[in-house]
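Q: Please design a sequence for this.
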């Protein structure tokens, strides 16, 4: 028997009509209704998913006739058809008859076994009797009724000229514009496929390509206004400024890319060839729980979505600053996906009907949405499935309490990401990561530093990498030249693989060379240390020939956790390092979080400029318990090794005194409790804030040593964000202004009889080694793989020669001139 579906804006009207029909046909006709929407505060409306569910509940091979009230009821019914299988679609008929009369006539015809065509015909003739009876009394319609007043649909036809079609960014702008008309129903039609214009998910999965014509249909109070706005947007190519692909990356590109290459900033040396693994584009395993309270799960999900949206706003702001609004628009598309009405309805329905947990319902819908993208014809648009998964993952992370879900690699791969923050990088398994390629970031961003420490080749600042390097594609990477091969041919693969082998052999040779001490030809010894982040880095540091640890970045113990490590947990880690290092010196830097290293348990209000905000020692002094706990753990562990203590980001004498006072108090407590610690442990500071250089004479009178942090010193002196690829030329430690600051710091330190080292990335650049030795640095600390090359340069150098090199370099007036001069020195 033919089934009947009633679609109305009002749930009451739909169920009242159902009641009336059941009375007439004695419940013999398969009948279902889809009335209203599931929003208790605003229940009037129609929902395509409800219509779909109603159709499926009465569907049989005899067919289904759908009757609708008006406006968006028609559009929801048309959308619902899209969700049915092609066989079902053929047997479902949308009936233009008036709802009440049509439904009654249709039900009667169905109850006597009429075919779908007969039911349709009967319904359409339903007004005849009424007209006949009272026809003469019908009022004439008013002469000039605007289409939208009459609830009619107005249309606009557009041809899309954008080279990549209505891809994520233009689609996001289109959907944002449509959402500015909340009471107007707007749909987009491409061929026979219809999408809700307010749903990014539906618009993007229409698969609109360059040259395609689409029809936009609107109904409701401001239908014409909405169409005018969408037409203006379309005339502006949906906000895509250039119709040609954007030119290649900005930033300090060492080598221009050939046609088959992408260029970025060299961040960690080495060569890799392997499949691309899109970071974040993988969803974690989620356990499905049943018997959950739908309202409570919905609330949890909404909180997670809202937190994910806040996070995206921060990404958008950062991206706009670093790469421009055009690049940031992709994340606006992500944000729209979080607010997509269809996607949210679909999740909510699952929560209600299956009573499962928010994670499971969200995951199901995200996977289905990604599948819809994967089914598109256009390769670029298919690749947008990764965006859906990224958004999906962001929400799952929030549902898990803010901790990132595991990124699991099943085979050795090159990790491709828009950005990797330090905790993301620290969690990568070095055994499976062949290389790293990111769109954002500079050579001294913390993720680049970690990549170097782990010996993983990396290229950062590669514009468009995430879109150009799809999941699974075989790609090549050269971290020394900053080049990527998105589609290497066989000869290139052979060549890159050969270079990788040679690089691995050279690594081996370097480790042997690294064991020799760093003594100049005329006998000056320079201490060479490694920068490490935890006990796991110690064996690598020793293998490459580190004589000590010049910088232990303790914050890496704090990054991947919901709560700070306890005193005992920290003590265990510091003690392990002390024992592994034996007699060798370890400079333990106190917590340097904030900046690009936020942690979930310090609830900082979002800062506009986190690098200029509550970071390093400033944060520790503002959170005395956190600081005191760390100091106690370090002091206790100092009994087991040869430690020095160092405070980061000190800019004022008072800051040092305040931090030192905390140490004094903890020492007193330990003494009183009889807990052993190294009472002679020296205390120094990082010199990385320009104000510290300006008052270096005063600071040198109070501290035991300086260690120059050129990464931050450079970014603050040059006013150039160290993670911003666009200002990488400025954030260069060879800038004359930075070299003068280093010179000044060394002079003040030596004048006051204290030693001065360097643990910024400049210390590990062998090109700069003669200059640094000549400037008089007593110690250089770097990522372990850089140690052998730096030692080799020192061994080939005479002290007096180094001094002359430093004098000459200080006279030069640009970073380029300094680099060129050091290149000449190297060439001999
Ligand atoms: C520096 O700023 O140079 C430094 C070594 O510290 P970090 O890179 O951890 O900020
Ligand atoms: Mg620093």
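A: Design:
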């Amino acid at each position: 028997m033919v089934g009947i579906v009633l679609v109305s804006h009002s749930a009451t009207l739909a169920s009242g009509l159902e009641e009336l029909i059941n009375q007439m046909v004695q419940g013999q006709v398969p009948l279902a209704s889809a009335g209203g929407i599931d929003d208790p505060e605003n229940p009037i409306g129609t929902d395509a998913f409800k219509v779909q569910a109603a159709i499926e509940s009465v569907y049989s091979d005899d067919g289904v006739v759908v009757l609708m009230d008006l406006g968006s009821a028609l559009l929801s019914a048309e959308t619902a058809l899209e969700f049915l299988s092609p066989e079902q679609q053929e047997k479902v008929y949308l009936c233009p008859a008036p709802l009440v009369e049509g439904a009654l006539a249709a039900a009667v015809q169905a109850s006597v076994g009429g075919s779908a065509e007969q039911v349709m015909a009967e319904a359409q003739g339903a007004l005849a009797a009424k007209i006949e009876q009272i026809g003469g009394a019908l009022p004439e319609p008013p002469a000039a009724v605007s289409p939208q007043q009459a609830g009619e649909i107005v249309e606009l036809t557009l041809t899309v000229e954008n080279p990549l079609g209505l891809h994520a960014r233009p689609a996001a702008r289109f959907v944002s514009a449509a959402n500015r008309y909340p009471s107007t129903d707007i749909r987009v039609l491409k061929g026979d496929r219809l999408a809700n214009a307010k749903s990014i998910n539906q618009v993007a999965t229409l698969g609109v390509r360059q040259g395609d014509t689409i029809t936009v249909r609107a109904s409701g109070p401001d239908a014409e206004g909405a169409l005018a706005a969408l037409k203006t947007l379309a005339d502006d190519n949906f906000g895509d400024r250039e119709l040609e692909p954007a030119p290649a990356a900005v930033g300090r590109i060492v080598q221009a890319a050939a046609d088959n290459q992408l260029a970025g900033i060299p961040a960690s040396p080495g060569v890799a060839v392997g499949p691309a693994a899109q970071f974040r584009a993988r969803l974690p395993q989620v356990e499905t729980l049943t018997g959950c309270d739908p309202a409570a799960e919905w609330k949890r999900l909404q909180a997670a979505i809202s937190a994910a949206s806040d996070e995206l706003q921060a990404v958008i702001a950062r991206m706009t600053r670093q790469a421009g609004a055009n690049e940031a628009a992709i994340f606006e598309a992500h944000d729209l996906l979080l607010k997509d009405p269809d996607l949210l309805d679909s999740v909510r329905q699952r929560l209600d009907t299956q009573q499962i947990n928010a994670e499971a319902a969200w995951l199901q819908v995200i996977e289905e949405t990604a599948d819809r993208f994967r089914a598109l014809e256009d390769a670029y648009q298919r690749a947008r499935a990764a965006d859906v998964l990224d958004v999906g993952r962001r929400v799952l992370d929030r549902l898990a309490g803010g901790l990132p879900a595991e990124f699991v690699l099943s085979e050795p791969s090159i990790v491709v990401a828009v950005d990797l923050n330090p905790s993301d990088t620290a969690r990568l398994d070095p055994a499976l990561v062949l290389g790293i390629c990111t769109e954002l970031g500079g050579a001294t961003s913390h993720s680049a530093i970690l990549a170097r420490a782990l010996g993983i080749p990396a290229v950062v600042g590669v514009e468009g990498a995430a879109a150009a390097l799809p999941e699974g594609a075989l790609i090549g990477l050269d971290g020394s030249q900053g080049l990527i091969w998105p589609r290497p041919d066989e000869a290139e693969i052979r060549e890159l693989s050969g270079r990788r082998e040679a690089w691995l052999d050279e690594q081996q040779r370097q480790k042997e060379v690294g064991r020799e001490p760093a003594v100049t030809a005329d006998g000056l010894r320079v201490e060479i240390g490694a920068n490490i982040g935890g006990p796991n880095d110690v064996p690598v540091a020793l293998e490459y020939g580190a004589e000590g640890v010049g910088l232990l970045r303790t914050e890496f113990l704090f990054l991947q956790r919901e709560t700070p490590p306890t005193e005992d947990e920290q003590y265990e880690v510091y003690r392990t390092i002390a024992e592994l290092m034996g007699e060798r010196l370890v400079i333990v830097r106190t917590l340097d979080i904030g900046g690009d290293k936020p942690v979930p348990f310090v609830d900082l209000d979002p800062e506009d400029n986190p690098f200029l905000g509550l970071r390093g020692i400033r944060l520790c002094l503002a959170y005395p318990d956190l600081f005191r706990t760390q100091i106690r753990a370090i002091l206790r562990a100092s009994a087991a090794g040869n430690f020095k203590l160092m405070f980061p980001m000190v800019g004022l004498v008072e800051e040092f005194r305040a931090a030192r006072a905390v140490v004094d108090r903890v020492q007193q407590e330990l003494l009183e409790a009889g807990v052993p610690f190294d009472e002679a442990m020296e205390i120094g500071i990082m010199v990385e804030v320009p104000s510290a250089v300006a008052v270096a004479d005063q600071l040198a009178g109070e501290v035991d040593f300086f260690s120059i942090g050129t990464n931050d010193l450079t970014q603050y002196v040059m006013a150039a964000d160290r993670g911003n690829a666009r200002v990488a030329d400025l954030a260069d430690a060879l800038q004359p202004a930075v070299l003068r600051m280093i010179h000044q710091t060394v002079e003040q330190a030596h004048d006051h009889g204290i030693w001065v080292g360097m643990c910024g990335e400049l210390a590990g650049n062998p090109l700069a080694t003669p200059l640094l030795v000549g400037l008089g640095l007593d110690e250089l600390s770097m990522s372990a793989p850089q140690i052998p090359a730096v030692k080799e340069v020192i061994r080939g150098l005479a002290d007096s020669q180094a001094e002359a090199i430093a004098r000459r370099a200080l006279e030069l007036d640009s970073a380029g001139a300094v680099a060129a001069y050091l290149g000449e020195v190297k060439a001999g």
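Q: Thanks. Anything notable?
A: The CA atoms of residues 310 and 403 lie 15 Å apart. The longest strand covers residues 271-278.
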